[in-house]
Amino acid sequence: MLTLTSPIETYAHRIPASLKLAAFVALTIALFATDRPWLLAPPVAALILSCGPAFALQTLKSLRPLVPLIVILALWHLWLRDPAGITVITRMIIGVAAANFVTMTSKLTELTRCIQSLARPLSPIIAPKTLALAIGLTIRFIPTMLLRAGQIAESWRARSAKRAGWRIFLPSTLAALDDATHTAEALRARGGLG
């Protein structure tokens, strides 16, 4: 499996994940507390650009999967003639860019440890270790699933002149379920969560 951590080393990699997560939570609260979320775009963009042009380009590429959702939201709000769509889309882009910044500049083990310590108050409901593992696996599987969907789309293009579009949804879903099954079997073989 791949990880979302950026191979481009920046100063932000040395900042503890707990501080970055706290800043992300504060940003998310601010995004929904204001009716002008675009005012938060310049500081987030400046933060990303402060890590260098290569890192900024990598961050921009990581936002590419949002494009279809942005188009759907924009068309929906245009059809409704609802100007609030701009606010929704702006919040989504800023929030995802900030979340990507946190995951790209933090090691997965550090994020998992941080989530585990934050989840301690939930221990009567769910084991913090289980929750941290679930979130960690979800983060690790995102790039793997994107890579697998890309491979399936390439296979489609090699066999057909038509665009793949929705046709790769089922094979991608089955591949994700297959990966999840193999991961569950591997965890079970190693004694679960220990």
Summarize the structure.
70% of the residues lie in helices and 0% in strands.
Features:
membrane, 8 helices, ABC/ECF_trnsptr_transmembrane, 194 residues, transmembrane helix, transmembrane, Energy-coupling factor transporter transmembrane component T family protein, mainly alpha, 2 domains, 0% strand, single chain
3D structure, described in words:
- By secondary structure, the chain is an all-alpha fold.
- It folds into two domains: 106 residues, no CATH class; 68 residues, no CATH class.
- It has eight helices and no strands.
- Helix 1 packs antiparallel against helix 5, helix 4 runs antiparallel to helix 5 and helix 7 runs antiparallel to helix 8.
- The longest helix is centred in the last third of the chain and has 32 residues.
- The chain is globular, with a radius of gyration of 19 Å.
- It starts with 16 loop residues before the first helix and ends in a 5-residue tail after the last helix.
- 11% of the residues are buried.
- It comes from Cypionkella sinensis.
- InterPro entries: ABC/ECF_trnsptr_transmembrane.
- It is a multi-pass membrane protein.
- Belongs to the CbiQ family.
- Its main location: membrane.
Helix-strand sequence: HHHHHHHH
Query: What low-confidence regions span 5 or more consecutive residues with pLDDT below 50?
Result: none
- Global mean pLDDT: 85
* Number of extended strands: 0
Q: What's the total helix number?
A: 8
Helix content: 55-70%
* Class from secondary-structure proportions: mainly alpha
Number of domains: 2
Secondary-structure map:
Blueprint: H1 17-33, H2 41-49, H3 53-62, H4 67-80, H5 84-104, H6 108-118, H7 128-159, H8 169-189
Helix pairs in contact: 1-5, 4-5, 6-7, 7-8
